[in-house]
Amino acid sequence: MTSSASLSQLFWTRGDDSPVTHVERIPPRSGRPVAWPGWAAPAFVDACRAQGIISPWAHQASAATLAFDGANVVLATGTASGKSLGYQMPVLSRILTDPRATALYIAPAKALAADQLRAVAGFGLPDVRPATYDGDTARDEREWIREHSRFVLTNPDMLHFGILPGHERWAVFLRRLAYVVIDECHTYRGVFGSHVAHVLRRLRRAAARYGGRPTFVLASATSGDPAGAASRLIGLPVTAVTEDASPRGGVTFALWEPPLQPAFPSLPSSPSSPSSPSSPSSPSSPDVPAPRSPSAAPSSDADFDPEIELPQVRRSALRETADLLTSAVVAGTRTLAFVRSRRGAELVAAITRRQLEEAVPGLGERVAAYRAGYLKEDRRAIERALLSGELLGLASTNALELGVDLVGLDAVLICGYPGTRASLWQQAGRAGRAGGEALAVLIARDDPLDTYLVHHPEALFGRPVEATVLDPANPYVLGPQLCCAASEAPITEADLELFGGDPARAAVAGLTASGALRRRPSGWYWTHAGRPDVDLRGTGGAPIQVVEKSTGRLLGTVDPESSHSMLHTGAVYLQQGVTYVVDDLDLDDAVALVHQEEPNWSTHANDVTDLSVVNVRSYVNAGPVGLFLGEVDVTNQVVSYQRRRIGTGEVLDTRPLDLPIRELRTVAVWFTVSPGALEAAGVEPPDFPGALHAAEHAAIGLLPLMATCDRWDIGGLSTASHADTEAPTVFVYDGHPGGAGFAERAYATAAEWLTATREAIAACACEAGCPSCVQSPKCGNGNNPLHKPGAVFVLDAVLAALATAPPSS
Ligand SMILES: [Zn+2]
Ligand SMILES: [Zn+2]
């Protein structure tokens, strides 16, 4: 379309210092339809035709046929590729042709189950009687659903708390259970995913008890190793169908790195530094925690005396997004900007409106902000206004990412990598209309992963490497889940294989010794009154409730693991883009009392961490370099916090805290490098600590490239000499008790992971390290010491040795 063509021109005409690092042209693809499989029920085919589905795409038919033949299958294709038809076809055909068969559909969110219910009911097929069964289902409807529905839609929590504990009442349904559909299965990851894996094993056991042996059909976003992830999730072999045969429009996808520019004098040694300008991007740039947000950066370098040497920072991604949105609206392009936080979205909308008003009075009114929390009618009105062209620009949080059917826009701006490729494509997928050319732009924030991606387009546009990881063997998940299983029916020897073999045997022995389970000749029994209290999203320890002091309103909860650093007394805490200050953290009652306030400082916890190696599961001996995977004990104490002025980063003061030491047994990956090898690689001994520390930060920042985790799920420790390894060492560990699979994935992909880490550091144009490469927003040592060039040498030494190493033992 002409409008987006002119928009592209606006982007590319910035000349040599263009922030565009890559342009990927994704050509339009015509779909590959195939004939309806011969086994598909005629009534189902007719219902599809009546809805305008003339024939299925090839990937839908292959997945459906595998599932119809009884193979467990995962359909892992892109957004809007029609995955639903892939499972509806075998499931509904079976229900139509076998008058007894039942099916269970599991979605991670109630809204998805409601969508799916509408879709299945919309076919108008006889005797299916689809129904959702979740926390909102009325008591008197539940019995009817158990007895009459043949397509029950639920979620993992309801399965765990409601259906499985009452399996006797579901006996008939479970005996006839032909299919289990697991939608959006890539969302079951980490600790939550490990719990869900056991809930599904409990489901298999309960069905088997009544004679049911369902086939599993899973739908996933594209990812690395979808078959492996699906198989770990259900505990059975799974076949993957990954070739997408649906049609799509062409998209021009640009990667954008905001330019470096001098910052304000921002070091603590400059007390006379000017306070941040009153630009709207300064105190309220909630997109990122304050230390990684150099958003006080002025909009033009001209404000500075070039003689003064200043540390460099990147221009704020929020401001770049607002500028692009402004250009887009001026060009008459209907554009949606995705911003990670609510306040960020509102800020982008506000800056854009102001800039537009300055250019053309009245034009500002054609831009709005959109987020969760708006009333449904208001949201619908905004969506309609954007589709009609009445609104030209919208800045949104990911509230728009799922569910809402807003597609066909000219352009999408994505402010900061949204964490996974699945989310990225979900957001980019909003751009594109029939026959037209659409534009998508990813604007990098100052974060090592964003930096890496804008310089390595193959990581986004090539074959995915990021895998969904989970670890059902985590003893902190396995133990509680075995208690749940035992409370549903005694655990037999044969069941132990289902729950993972040796780790399950060890867990049952431990639970018997502690008195949680009792051994009898027929198996292990749960003999306590009441059911075990197990939360699918945790590994023990109550989440800390964040409560507004004046109103008693519950604002949200925080993992006990992160509470000391995020919710200590005096901490500035962001929740959904609103800023609060913590008045008191009461660990005994697991509650933090807060009040709303917007101080002009941010807070940063300082901690002391110690780590000891418990055992080594696997290692690679690469001469001067060693790579290890094993269990570790981490002790951590948050001892104080700094208050830093927003914008300049000036340290106002450091205040002590009185918090207890915490212990964590978890899984870590670590590498050691001999001092000789470090020196040979170019690192001077005084720089060892800074080089290792910088490498650790960047490695943590890049791990989400390999596994769907957040850098906040991971911890690290680096030292020039560790008591257990007797060498310079970098540890990276899962931040959850027992591990969540992240360190394991890091070990398995070490060469790729550390190569990406090295590239991210080397590609950053800063001199001494910045938040885009080696600085970390969660460093407990105030990002000190850090030695950026040394970090590259460390990783060079490790990679060179690993390249010639024998396989792991
Ligand atoms: Zn940098
Ligand atoms: Zn650090």
How does this structure look, described?
By secondary structure, this protein is α/β, with parallel strands linked by helices. The protein is globular, with a radius of gyration of 27 Å. The N terminus is likely disordered. The structure holds zinc ion (2 copies).
Characteristics:
809 residues; alpha/beta; seven-stranded mixed beta sheet; seven-stranded parallel beta sheet; 29 strands; 34% helix; binds zinc ion
Structural class: alpha/beta
Please provide the count of β strands: 29
Bound molecules: zinc ion
User: Approximately how much beta-strand content do the residues carry?
Assistant: 15-25%
State the major sheet: 7 strands, mixed
What's the short story on this structure?
The protein has 25 helices and 29 strands. With 809 residues, the chain is of the alpha/beta class.
List the helices and strands and how they pair.
Elements (H helix, E strand, L loop, with lengths): L1 H11 L7 E7 L15 H9 L7 H11 L4 E4 L6 H15 L4 E5 L3 H13 L7 E3 L6 H10 L2 E4 L1 H8 L7 H5 L1 E6 L7 H20 L5 E6 L5 H9 L4 E3 L8 E7 L3 E3 L49 E3 L2 H14 L4 E5 L2 H18 L7 E4 L5 H13 L4 E4 L14 E5 L5 H8 L8 E7 L4 H8 L2 H4 L13 H14 L4 H6 L3 H12 L3 E4 L2 E4 L17 E5 L5 E5 L1 H7 L5 E4 L2 E9 L4 E6 L4 E22 L2 E21 L5 E6 L5 E12 L1 H7 L6 H15 L11 E6 L9 E6 L7 H7 L1 H14 L24 H16 L6
Parallel strand pairs: 2-7, 2-8, 3-5, 3-6, 4-5, 6-7, 9-16, 12-14, 12-15, 13-14, 15-16, 19-23
Antiparallel strand pairs: 1-9, 10-11, 17-18, 19-20, 21-22, 22-23, 24-25, 25-26, 25-27, 27-29, 28-29
Helix pairs in contact: 2-4, 3-4, 9-17, 11-12, 15-24, 17-19, 21-25, 22-24, 22-25, 24-25
The chain binds zinc ion (2 copies).
The site of one zinc ion has 6 residues, from loops.
